[in-house]
Every structure is written in structure tokens, then in C-alpha cells.
Design brief:
heterodimer; A: about 150 residues; alpha+beta; 3-stranded antiparallel sheet; about 30% strand; globular; B: alpha+beta; 3 domains; 4-stranded antiparallel sheet; Alpha-D-ribose 1-methylphosphonate 5-triphosphate synthase subunit PhnG (chain A); Phosphonate_metab_PhnG (chain A)
Chain lengths: ~150, ~375
């Protein structure tokens, strides 16, 4: 797999891992995924999350998180689903989508699913960041003569 | 002595469980709680259960809270028990808290810092008065600023570190994989990675009490809240099928960097030392307590004489886990009929022997 393909897949997998189930179902409805062969049926397990002392130092085991994964093969393409939480159906759909995205129908699915979902995820993140920004402290210096003055 | 199995009580136990189920549901005329309601409207309880259950899964934590009737310690126990049924697929890549999508970030050390003081969702600067409006319903909204907060913000201790005043925080040579208490039991001396894992899942109340003790004189540190940040951090794994890292979602974390008094080992320049706290969810009390206790447990690194409970790793780490503590304390509720009868008989024999001795002496 070339570096460009790896980067592209990592980008869409990141979006797919956060996609709601209904959006995945709807986008895949028009694609023939019946021929998919399951190399790994959806299974829920855990990953161990790690932190670093001081944020940058020695690694430590922070605690586990549930994850669900699935792997399918469609023709020459292997699709991977891997996401946080206990979501077998989403993992299955994610693997199918990953496989379709690598094939000839990839650009169409990208336009129908990845692009709008990515936009929605960015919008949600931006909204949270704007709500946080509204709580940023604007310090001002008190001056006896003139009252509050913006610094 | 051996445990003697006693039969009977089965019907009583089943009925007791039915009674729990009935009481858990409450008045059937009231609507039943949904897991989504617990997850989103009792989110701090969910966070605590995930942290102490040492398993990040808000849906399961909400279920555990519902099952435990809001008892956070019992809910954490349920998560710990559940996780033993799951296989661990992989270790995620170390979380990079400097990539956190900031929702709150404050420093008690610097007024003006890059990115600013972002209060986020906080009641810290309010009177804690009961809000009777909440007895009713509503859909309040908060204002949005035009521009979002910076996508990434530097961590405050790293800023101080740039000036050379901060104890550096670098990985050991080779950046080794950490130990793991879910695989290997606690042993002493416990290295810092093991201590941090233990503290991250420790009981919040126990940690808070210990942290408070270090401030009240059972410890000698004067800490500053260098930085407290809360927000979402991406989780990356390298699936074996792919061989490259992918983001599989994100976790909400609270990170606390405590900066503690100047130390100068002989021949070294004095500088700030630090304690570190990191835990699942929005949990500042927990993360700050963890950081204070982490620093206290580093006494030997700074040639501080360990004199207080919070500096005693065995005392802290052996008693911090509420699943273990509550199991051992509450096992006392189980039948000890035979032990007790044995002790009673021993007391009777001792008294009889004493009476016999007294009689002999009197004759």
C-alpha cells in the first residue's frame, strides 16, 4: 500500500469511526455489498489507553476502552472497521464502507458519505470550540480614575 | 480453617434480588430512566464510574449506574467485572494531551497564557446555591463566540520548562511500554508508571482525602495548579490488518499538572517539580488529587524523608482501589457462623479455666 493510499484511508477511517449507524446504512444501501466475505465478524474487545507522566514523559497504562472491530474482503480489497464502544453493526458497516471506498465506487461513496459526515463532524467540533471560546476570560485593568478599561 | 457450605436461603436470595429490581424501578407511574438520559444528564457520575471502573465506555457506565441505583462504587465494580469477559485487542498509542480539543483550560500560575484562560463548563466561580428552576424542565443554551478556541494549546509546564525552571518530563531511554496492573499484580517498590495507573483508577474520595492531608501538614509541598485542561483527545491504534495508525474515536479526559515547590538537590540548580493527574471524563477533583498524591509519592526522587501517609506507596496503593476495599470490608456481611461459634467456645473455655483456677486458689 502506497503512502498516499494509507493517508487517504486513515482520513476516511477516522471519519467512519465517528459516523452514526443510520448514515452508514443509508449511504451503503445503494452499493452491492452482498459479495463481502467476512475475515473477522464484528467482535467487541478492549484496547489499553496510555498516558504519559507530565504529558510528555514516561508512558503509563491509563485504563481500557471498549472497541468493536470487523474485517471483510470484497474482491481484491480488504475493508476494516474499528471503532470505540460496543457497536457491532457500525463496525460491520464501517468495514464494508472501507472496502467500497477502495474500489471503483469509492469516489461516489466518498462524496455521498465521507464528505458530508466529515463536514458535520468538523461543524460539531467547531461549535464546541466556539462555546468554549465564549468562556475565555478577558482580563482588564481597574483604574480608579476611569473605571474598567480593556487591556 | 475450611469454609463449610450451608444450604438454604436460595428462595430468600432470589426474592431479595426481585425486591432490588422493584425498588430500582421506583413508582411505575413515573417514566423509567433511559440510558441516554443517564449518559448525558448525569454525565459526571458516568465519568466517575468509567474512571474507577477503569473502562472507557459511557454507554456501559450508564447501564451500570442504572443497575446500581446510582451507587457509583457498585457501578465501577460492575464495569470491572464486565471487562474481565472481554479480550484486549491491542494497546493504543500513547494519548497526546497537547492535541486535546480544549473545552476548559485554566492556569493558576499565569494570567496571560497562549490560548487564554478558558473557563468552559464550570461552576467554580459561582455560589453553590440550589437552583429550584431545575425542578422544572427547560432547554437552556450557552452563547458562542465568533472564533473558536485555538485548535491546540501548549501545556503550561512545557512553557515554564522552556525557560529551564521546570523539572523535565521525558520518557526513559527507549520509551518502554508501561507495566499493567490488569496483567501483573502490584509489587513494591512500585515504579511511577504503575503508581499512575493505580491512581488513575483509584477511589476519588480516598485520593481527595490524601491530597487534602498533604496540604494540611501531613506533607510538605506547596502546590500550584500549573494547568488543568479538559476536552477530547483522539485515540489511535495500529490494527494488525493495516499496519498503520488510525483514529478510532476520542476520549474525554481531564489533565492536571501540579507544580510544586522549588527543590535543589546538592549541586543542582533549584527548580520546580511536578505531579501529574489524568483521568477519564470531566473530573477535576480527581485529577488534581491524583497529581498531588503522585507528587507526594515521588518523595524518594527528591531526597524528601517520607513521613506521612500520602508519601507511603504501600499505604496509598494497597488501599486506593475501591473494588478491592469494598470487597474486603463487605465480605464481613457473609456468614461467619462457624468462626464466631469457635470464638465463642474459646471464650467459654477460657472463662471456665479461670473459674477453676480461682476456686483452686480459694480452697
Amino acid at each position: 500500500m502506497g503512502a498516499a493510499v494509507m493517508r487517504a484511508r486513515a482520513e476516511w477511517l477516522k471519519v467512519l469511526a465517528r459516523c452514526p449507524e443510520a448514515a452508514l446504512e443509508a449511504a451503503l444501501a445503494g452499493h452491492d455489498t452482498g459479495a463481502a466475505e467476512w475475515l473477522r465478524r464484528p467482535e467487541t474487545g478492549m484496547v489499553m489507553l496510555e498516558g504519559r507522566a507530565g504529558g510528555t514523559g514516561q508512558r503509563f497504562s491509563l485504563g481500557q476502552a471498549t472497541v468493536t472491530r470487523a474485517t471483510c474482503r470484497m474482491g481484491a480489497d480488504v475493508g476494516v472497521g474499528y471503532l470505540m464502544g460496543h457497536f457491532p453493526r457500525r463496525a460491520e458497516l464501517m468495514a464494508l464502507a472501507d472496502a467500497v471506498l477502495q474500489g471503483p465506487d469509492g469516489p461516489a461513496l466518498h462524496a455521498a458519505l465521507i464528505a458530508p459526515q466529515e463536514a458535520a463532524q468538523v461543524a460539531a467540533r467547531t461549535d464546541r470550540a466556539r462555546a468554549a471560546a465564549a468562556t475565555t476570560v478577558e482580563f482588564f485593568t481597574m483604574s480608579r480614575e476611569t473605571g474598567p478599561r480593556s487591556s | 480453617m475450611a469454609y463449610v457450605p450451608v444450604k438454604g436461603g436460595e428462595a430468600a436470595i432470589l426474592n431479595a434480588l426481585d425486591l432490588v429490581a422493584e425498588e430500582r424501578r421506583g413508582d411505575p407511574a413515573d417514566p423509567e430512566l433511559t440510558l441516554a438520559q443517564i449518559r448525558t444528564q448525569q454525565a459526571r457520575a458516568v465519568d466517575r464510574v468509567m474512571a474507577e471502573g477503569s473502562l472507557y465506555d459511557p454507554d456501559l457506565a450508564a447501564l451500570a449506574l442504572k443497575q446500581a441505583q446510582g451507587d457509583a462504587t457498585e457501578a465501577a465494580f460492575l464495569l470491572r467485572a464486565y471487562r474481565t469477559t472481554l479480550e484486549q485487542f491491542a494497546r493504543a498509542r500513547p494519548l497526546e494531551t497537547d492535541r486535546m480539543a480544549i473545552r476548559r483550560r485554566i492556569s493558576a500560575c499565569y494570567k496571560d497564557l497562549p490560548g487564554g484562560q478558558v473557563l468552559g463548563p464550570s461552576v467554580d466561580y459561582s455560589h453553590r446555591m440550589l437552583d429550584f428552576d431545575l425542578a422544572g424542565e427547560g432547554a437552556p443554551t450557552a452563547p458562542r463566540a465568533e472564533a473558536p478556541v485555538a485548535a491546540q494549546m501548549p501545556r503550561v509546564p512545557d512553557l515554564v520548562g522552556n525557560e529551564g525552571f521546570m523539572e523535565p518530563s521525558e520518557p526513559p531511554a527507549g520509551d518502554p511500554a508501561p507495566g499493567d496492573l490488569t496483567r501483573d499484580p502490584l509489587a513494591f517498590p512500585a515504579p511511577r508508571d504503575i503508581r499512575l495507573q493505580n491512581l488513575a483508577r483509584a477511589d476519588e474520595g480516598f485520593l481527595l482525602g490524601l491530597a487534602y492531608s498533604t496540604q494540611r501538614g501531613f506533607g510538605s509541598n506547596h502546590p500550584y495548579a500549573g494547568e488543568i485542561r479538559m476536552g477530547e483527545v483522539p485515540v489511535e491504534v495500529v490494527p494488525e490488518e493495516l499496519g498503520f495508525a488510525i483514529e478510532i474515536g476520542e476520549v474525554t479526559l481531564t489533565e492536571s499538572q501540579m507544580i510544586t515547590s522549588v527543590k535543589g538537590a546538592s549541586g543542582e540548580n533549584p527548580k520546580f517539580t511536578r505531579g501529574y493527574g489524568l483521568a477519564f471524563g470531566h473530573c477535576e477533583r480527581k485529577a488534581m488529587s491524583m497529581a498531588l498524591v503522585d507528587r507526594a509519592l515521588r518523595a524518594d526522587e527528591f531526597a524528601e524523608e517520607p513521613r506521612y501517609p500520602a508519601q507511603d506507596a504501600e499505604f496509598v496503593l494497597y488501599h486506593s482501589d475501591n473494588v478491592e476495599s469494598s470487597g474486603f470490608v463487605q465480605h464481613l456481611k457473609l456468614p461467619h457462623y462457624v468462626d464466631f461459634q469457635a470464638e465463642l467456645r474459646m471464650l467459654r473455655e477460657m472463662r471456665a479455666a479461670r473459674r477453676a483456677t480461682e476456686q483452686e486458689a480459694a480452697e
